[in-house]
Write a structure and sequence with these properties.
The chain folds into two domains: 225 residues, 2-enoyl-CoA Hydratase, Chain A, domain 1; 90 residues, no CATH class. It has eleven helices and 15 strands. The protein is of the alpha/beta class. It starts with a helix and ends in a 12-residue tail after the last strand. Strands 1, 2, 3, 4, 5, 6, 9, 10 and 11 form a nine-stranded mixed β-sheet that branches. The chain has a four-stranded antiparallel β-sheet with strand order 13-12-14-15, with helices on both faces.
Amino acid sequence: MRILGVLYVLLCAGLLPVRNAQAMQLARAGDALVLSGEIVYQDLARVRDALDRAPQIQVIVLRNSMGGNSWTGYRLGELFRERGLTTVVSGHCVSSCSRLFLGGRERRFASDYPAAMTYVGFHGHYDFGKLNTESVAKHDLVQWTLRFAGKGLDRALVERWAAIPTRAGDVRFYPDAARSQYGVTTFYCVGSESRRPQRCERLATDALSQGIITSPAMYQSADRDQLRFGTRERQWPSTGYATLAEPPKGVSAPIARDYRQFLEAAFPRGFAISEDRRFAAWRGNNRAANEEAIAACERSSRQRCRLYAVDDRVVFSAPPSAQKLR
């Protein structure tokens, strides 16, 4: 029984392989290898083999991963640095995934998803969701991070995120384009906030100055147009009609309030407005947000409604007779 107990502790700490865990998904996209999903022990061998079989790969795209096995995260980061690869965050990359990202000799954000959904998140090591300080020390998390990020990274900030008490918290860095929605691009989240990152502590720094990324230029993945948000952007492109942060001109105070709530909603989201601007409706965190917002607006107004904003852009275009409302 004692041996079984020790094995269980090692398994939960991420120090033994998990045979039944879902491995990362690997896919080729041009000269890039796209990695997504949970990181497991076996991924080190799988990724190394994929790189050996395709030496033309220059970029590792890390897409929508909440992390996983800590040991594998460090080893993959070291492998990417050894081979001089560029790493890119596409969507979110958190926890162990952040070590893969720091392994890149060049590091960038991708434009595959809206900027407000694109971030890399850092924290410590956890067992059952609670901080494991012994694991943080054993992996030498702080020093490893400082060595791979470079000279710009603030040691005090790394020590702070390495001590976040729960796995749900993190220090997250967004691309500069997210500033128009959030006001800042770096947040300290403890994990209990009602909305993240809006209710998290705002930090007066950014990914470039800290050395988290090496270039502000956004990377566009070869498969971007196949992703859901790439499709939505093609279907509903920005018209440049107005600034997203400001409510539509000529609307009532209640509609302006609803619009501000819309701006804090999760993507996918859509905001619809009636032709006379007296009625509006919105939906968020919903794949059918656009259609449902239009339907709700038309039910209340009994007239035609059109989309005003979708996700992170204004898509409305007024007819000549309504230009004065701008």
